[in-house]
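User: Here's a protein and a ligand (4'-deoxy-4'-aminopyridoxal-5'-phosphate). What would the complex look like?
Assistant: Let me lay out the input and then the predicted complex.
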Amino acid sequence: MKKHNFSAGPSILPQEVFEKAAQAVLDFKGSGLSLLEISHRSKDFVAVMEEARTLALELLGLTGKGYQALFLSGGASLEFLRVPYNLMTLHGKAAYLDTGTWAAGAIKEAKQFGDTIVVASSKADNYTYIPKDYTIPEDADYFHCTSNNTIFGTQMFSFPETKVPVVCDMSSDIFSRQLDFSKFDLIYAGAQKNMGPAGTTLIIVKEEILGKTGRQIPNILDYKQHIDKESMYNTPSVFAIYTSYLTLQWLKENGGITVMEKKNDAKAALLYAEIDRNPLFQGTSNAEDRSKMNVTFLLKDEAHTEQFDKIWKAKGISGLPGHRSVGGYRASIYNAMPIESVQVLVEAMQDLEKSV
Ligand code: PMP
């Protein structure tokens, strides 16, 4: 039986994407060859790369607006390093918003390059909220934020107006909701949540912000090199990119981001309503900052843990425990998660209530 997979990443993808990707591993486009054994420079794979890059920009409404899309390797974690390398000027500074573990990881890397100003942090409150009152220095080379905090279950619903280039780690909510993406100058996202398997990172970058640092950038870390080589500077992660491409096609065929956002809103509303109604549970993040992708919650009385775990496991639910650093529960309800699975989780919570 297929499980209801609430894992935070790698995570659920549409079933038809799994099937098409599996087929391509066996026989890619009727070629008699596996996707995994053909050259990345073959006509068929070059077409996949081109279409995936085009589709990513199209879905975000960024076609013809001076942006490039890249599919690179190294995870979002490598972008923590690649961003300052490409954007922080030699004696310049960067501004960061500290909203969670991953934001803090990005700050740590930036500090190796230069003056890294943390404009605000919710660390002292265990990252339960998104700071809102802060000032971004006008002379910063860029401002970096994390749109969705996968571990703590908070999400940014507004972004600062600033003249400084805005960089955003959208690893755990890209393609889940409509934003004016042209307000961002650089977006990056590890594929393994809303887009595909682990192994590739989507980077969307406005070309005009590059080439201004006065720094010698090693080729593999230089966004310009990757743009010039059409995301094929070195052998790309063919399987991860092809599967991401299939997911982007699925998204387009199913109405794009706007339709997806409505479904995501409904799923999140259903689950948060139960967390707030059920006397045995409580949410962990500030109500106005609650993530619609990663819903974090606790049992008010930990004595019910064993019983609750037994109930949800019996219903075929998987991947519900919170991140190892915070505990509790985390239901990741990415694009591919059907509302029916969220309903099964709600029923598990109600069954616990009836049983105590
Ligand atoms: N940023 C965010 C918001 C994440 O959720 C994660 C991974 N869960 C990362 C960065 C790190 O990504 P990766 O493991 O792809 O390096």
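Summary: Residues 256-277 form the longest helix (22 residues).
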